[in-house]
Design goal:
The protein has about 300 residues and is mostly helical. The protein has 13 helices and no strands.
């Protein structure tokens, strides 16, 4: 690994850390600027009780002091404070418990989307303008244009009510099948289209023509040269896609009653649990930043010819 690559990676890590700090700062001050408070929904709360509650959660000190304490807790102890509504539980414990399910859901959906998308994209490119290519493009266009909550609802109605193959409760292993399919369809369609366009571009390059002229087998050309280079745009998309699947599954988790971080996040908003809202927002945003960072670094791993600056 040369000096330019190390400098690029270091610069991207520092930018990622700066972005996460900005997310923490903006989230903290925006949440504290929201009208009302976490105790306004409580019934018959007197001024004395509200003052005691603010003192308990450290909300009775100046905002700048609250920010420094909050930032220090995250940096030193990875602590986002206690949940206001879920008594006796810390925010990080709630988030990590939900992330265990959401991560399984997201990784499974991303894996299916990657494998199926690459295969379909390669087939479409190799069968360009043939009937199979047209069918793949029509289907993927439909999946891209259809929101996940509509697709999830259709799958729920089709395979739990009309044809009871899967349970509607996402807390079981079989109950995760439909949510995984729902979350994988749109990314799979994107990857299919990316792979197809990239493959067509690579197949038209001079070194592919040279390989064919030298008598290199079609299998080696496709899998040894064309597909490998065509996957660079897919890798660009895959990192953020994985993060977006995990962080963007809020509606899908609610539709299928999956006990993931998305369901917890929606519940925290409904309950005005400000520490949990802030903690979940920061964790999910940081996950997106980290996956973008890893995706950028993976360019060099996949294709050493790329000059990182």
């Amino acid at each position: 690994m040369n000096t330019n690559t190390l400098f690029y990676i270091l610069k991207r890590i520092l930018l990622a850390l700066l972005t996460i700090w900005v997310v923490i700062t903006v989230t903290f001050f925006v949440m504290h600027a929201v009208p009302g408070g976490p105790f306004t929904s409580e019934k018959a709360v007197s001024a004395e009780v509200e003052a005691a509650m603010k003192a308990k959660y450290g909300l009775d000190v100046p905002l700048s002091e609250q920010y420094i304490t909050y930032l220090k807790g995250i940096v030193t102890k990875f602590d986002f404070g206690p949940s206001i509504k879920q008594k006796g539980r810390s925010v990080i414990d709630i988030i990590m418990t939900g992330l265990k399910t959401s991560a399984v859901l997201g990784v499974a959906a991303a894996g299916i989307a990657l494998v199926v998308g690459v295969v379909l994209g390669a087939v479409a490119a190799l069968r360009r303008n043939k009937i199979s290519d047209r069918i793949i493009m029509i289907v993927t266009t439909a999946f891209v244009s259809m929101p996940s909550f509509i697709m999830g609802t259709l799958l729920l109605l089709s395979f739990t009510l009309a044809i009871p193959l899967f349970p509607a409760n996402g807390s079981t292993k079989m109950g995760l099948v439909l949510p995984v399919i729902t979350l994988s369809l749109s990314p799979m369609a994107h990857i299919t289209r990316l792979t197809r366009s990239s493959m067509l571009d690579v197949l038209g390059q001079d070194y592919i023509r040279t390989a064919r002229a030298k008598g290199v087998s079609s299998v080696k050309i496709i899998f040894g040269h064309a597909l490998k280079n065509a996957l660079i745009p897919v890798i660009t998309y895959f990192g953020p896609m994985l993060a977006y699947i995990v962080t963007g599954s809020l509606v899908v988790e609610r539709i299928f009653a999956v006990p993931g971080v998305g369901s917890e996040f929606v519940s925290s908003i409904t309950n005005r649990d400000y520490p949990e809202i802030m903690g979940t927002t920061i964790i999910l945003a940081s996950l997106i930043v980290i996956m973008n960072l890893l995706g950028d670094i993976m360019y060099k791993v996949v294709d050493p010819r790329i000059n990182l600056k």
